[in-house]
Write a structure and sequence with these properties.
14-stranded parallel sheet, about 425 residues, 40 strands
Length: about 425
């Protein structure tokens, strides 16, 4: 008898061997030799750039399915007016460095105009470019992973390090993961130098995911570390560490989900300026010098009044007073949070509190439907405070609210995991 399982495995192995046999590797060291190699390449081929430092190299990658990488990870450094345009599909650009680049005008250093492409292991440092990376409107399903972005000079052209533009017709589904953003100097304030901007002012459906990224020392470049100006994006499992004066700013879009993030060592939290139906849940805030939550209004108000924001299942540990009583913002809900010495600045008919546990100063009289109790926090091995045995917060969640499922994304809208990523009991 035939074993279909073994036959299937053998077929897969055969296909992999065939791909390896028939794929080609081209070695290049200039724009001209790269162009010749790309002209001869087919999907699956690899173009290897010879290690060294190169200035003023402009590349356009348009051949489907090829890979561009250095001889050795990090071994190729581009500087000067060097740039890359990725206009094809299923292209991988990996392990290159762009250091001290100075691109002209509003040209980005790396411009992704095609779809289903991957940037991996790219290091970008001290580039005087309008954007470090731009994903143009209409490009879809691109991934930026394991990259480092830092030190955009104060005198560089003002614009975001990473700009993900919006399309009125198609979501872009960009995924950014395991990236670091570090040490951008400047005077602070709203100068358009955000490390990440999604959308602009159209309020279009975007469906980007930013996950497992690290942000530190970025408040000098702009007061928004992530400026979200689109609909249905997710920021999750990121760490904002020693990142003062720069928040996640929810702007012209709405229905965005911010969850599973850590705001520690005096990092600023989340500001809801515009957009309907934003949800902030399962985050850990320890921000003694900055408000973890601010309900604000864009000035001027470009788009949608920031109504129906839900702040759910968050831990506020020794935080500065949250500014939540802006009377323009309607129907702000605080459900099932823990406030440990983390007050709010007041209450009004636009803000409701249900199922929260308060320990220490809260700033207002306890609203009905909430309770004061010691959450029995314990400092765990990862350096943050977690629920100890016998905590009154265990199995204490209330019902009466739901989180919408964003179409085609795998977000945790059922809140099936706790703040540490562990599965909750049913």
């Amino acid at each position: 008898m035939y074993d279909r399982h073994n036959i299937g495995i053998a077929l897969i192995i055969h296909l992999i061997i065939c791909m390896n046999v028939f794929s080609a590797t081209f070695t290049v060291n200039s724009a001209s030799t790269f162009s010749a190699a790309q002209n001869n390449a087919v999907a699956g081929d690899v173009i290897v750039w010879t290690n060294g430092t190169y200035s003023g190299v402009g590349l356009t990658l348009n051949k489907k399915g090829i890979t561009l990488k250095p001889e050795k990870a990090g071994g190729v450094i581009f500087n000067g007016n060097s740039s890359v345009v990725i206009s094809g599909s299923n292209i991988t650009v990996a392990d290159l460095q762009y250091v001290n680049c100075a691109n002209t005008g509003s040209s980005p250093c790396i411009n992704i105009t095609g779809s289903n492409n991957t940037l991996a292991g790219i290091n970008m440092n001290t580039c005087s470019s309008y954007n470090y990376v731009k994903v143009t409107a209409g490009a879809q399903y691109n991934e930026i992973s394991n990259c480092n972005f830092q030190n955009k000079p104060e005198n560089a052209p003002n614009n975001s390090l990473i700009a993900i533009d919006e399309s009125a017709t198609v979501p872009n589904y960009t995924k950014m993961r395991y990236c670091s953003f570090q040490h951008c100097p400047g005077p602070g304030g709203d100068y358009g130098n955000e490390p990440i901007r999604i959308g602009l002012r159209g309020g279009c459906v975007s469906r980007c995911i930013i996950e497992y990224c690290y942000f530190t020392d970025l408040g000098g470049s702009d007061n928004e570390t992530i400026s979200n100006k689109a609909l249905e994006d997710v920021v999750r499992y990121c760490t904002f560490d020693k990142n003062p004066s720069a928040e996640i700013s929810l702007r012209h879009g709405g229905r965005n989900q911010i969850y599973g993030n850590f705001f520690i060592n005096n990092s600023k939290g989340v500001v809801v300026k515009e957009g309907d139906g934003n949800i902030i849940y399962n985050n850990y805030f320890s921000t003694s010098s900055f408000e973890p939550i601010v309900m604000a209004v864009g000035n001027p108000l470009y788009s949608v009044t920031p109504n129906n924001a839900s702040i759910i299942h968050n831990t506020f540990y020794n935080c500065k007073t949250s500014d939540v009583t802006n009377t323009v913002c309607k129907n702000t809900k605080f459900f099932d949070n823990i406030f440990y010495n983390s007050p709010v600045n007041g209450t009004n008919g636009n803000v409701s509190y249900i199922g929260n546990i308060i320990s220490g100063s809260f700033g207002i009289s306890l609203p009905s439907g909430n309770k004061t109790a010691d959450p029995k926090f314990t400092l765990n091995g990862d350096g943050y405070y977690y629920l100890g045995a016998g905590s009154p917060a265990i199995d204490a969640a209330s019902a009466g609210y739901s989180i919408p499922d964003i179409d085609s994304l795998d977000e945790d809208f059922r809140i099936g995991k706790d703040i540490s990523g562990k599965t909750r009991p049913d």
